[in-house]
Amino acid sequence: MTRVALLKCEDYDSLLIVEKMLEALNLLGLEPEIFSGKRVVIKPNLLSASAPEKSVVTHPEFFRAALRVVRNHGGTPILCESPGFQPLGKVMKKTGYDRIAEEEGCEVADPRATKILFHDGPCRFKRFEISSAVFDADILLNLPKFKTHGLTYITGAVKNLFGLIYGLNKSQWHLKARSKEEFSEFLLDYYSALLRGFEKPKIFIHLMDAVIGLEGEGPGLAGTPRNIGAILAGQDAVAVDAVVTGVVGLRQKEVLTVTLGEKRGLGAGALDRIDVKGDGLDAFQIRDYAPSKASGRTPVSAWPLNTRLFKDLLVEKPVPSEERCTLCYQCKAICPGGAIGESKGESGIPCYDYNKCIRCYCCMEICPEAAIGLKRGKLQWLVSKWSS
Ligand code: SF4
Ligand code: SF4
């Protein structure tokens, strides 16, 4: 039975987190000496240049604790991340990662150095351009931040690995896999390639920062920080995501990387197939954790649901706010659908072509001012009433 360690942890004191991480490894049956003499790629969530208290990135003290666990047990840590839009240096500076990497002595992989990972499994997608540092690593230490997500419902251990794909290339995958279902299948193809595509398989360890998560319109600055008080650990990313979804009381069947991941044999998605060690699910009494308003349930890639009419009726659309927008146009640069143009109006805020918009919500994720909100489709209130 797959094991997941679930521990209470109420603050970002790095000494406390080191203790919890060691306890979690022990509960998984792993000796910390597993890091000895190994090259350990550390993959936090560094989505964008934002202050740690906004809860968009894996907390820097969580990262520090992971570095200490690796270093103190003879491992060589290498930070590996490629933010969606901004340069890694800028994101590291704003989040405090640059200082910590220097203080603790951590190599930083160049996000532009990439190599092709090919896995000829029973998958639709087989070829992925990822950070070359992963190829040289023995261990992949994944440090996801638990957040809600407009397209994939949550972002956790499986989704965090997407950040090993170089910068803006990530948004191009949204064009190839447009609906929630397709995108989740793509993430699982990719996860499967990471698990099975290297000549010498990597050891995976996932340590999740769910001390303070993000609810509502995550995973970017439009989300709201929410205290959860948990650290999770496991070697099965699907199981870690299943357990954290249970911790916050969200609907597990909505997390397709969990349900489809289980179906495809990539991990344990059902809670009764997971041995939860440590404080247990009952130690957490969260009943009102808010998901993103974007249901992402409509398969917008399939005709006739990909027509403007149906999308307008049934799917939330991103709408920029005149009051908050600073006209940086990062949303336009990241938009894979080419749906965002410059406004001809007085305000100058971006102009959206909802015919082209594939509802991937990358623009919301990246907006540095949390200026993009969601507007429900005209018939959605009716559908939600009917299905409730
Ligand atoms: S909506 Fe956000 S990302 Fe787009 S231009 Fe305005 S501030 Fe920039
Ligand atoms: S407008 Fe936003 S949601 Fe629509 S395709 Fe572009 S990035 Fe995705």
How would you sum up this structure, described in words?
- With 388 residues, the chain is α/β, with parallel strands linked by helices.
- 31% of the residues lie in helices and 22% in strands.
- The chain has 14 helices and 16 strands.
- The strands form four sheets. Strands 1, 2, 3, 4, 7, 8, 9, 10, 11 and 12 form a ten-stranded mixed β-sheet that branches. Strands 5-6 form a two-stranded antiparallel ribbon. Strands 13-16 form a two-stranded antiparallel sheet.
- β8 and β9 (153-155) form a beta hairpin.
- α1 crosses α2 and α2 packs parallel to α4.
- The mean pLDDT is 93.
- The structure holds iron/sulfur cluster (2 copies).
- The site of one iron/sulfur cluster has 14 residues, from α13.
- One iron/sulfur cluster binds at residues 318, 335-337, 339-340, 352, 357-363.
Helical fraction: 25-40%
Number of separate helices: 14
* Largest sheet geometry: 10 strands, mixed
Rg, Cα atoms, Å: 20 Å
Number of strands: 16
Bound ligands, named by name, code or SMILES = iron/sulfur cluster
Quaternary structure state of the chains depicted: single chain
What spatial form do the alpha-carbon principal axes imply? Answer: globular
SSE pattern, N- to C-terminal:
EHEHEHHEEEHEEEHHHEEHHEHEHEEHEH
Structural class, from helix and strand content? alpha/beta
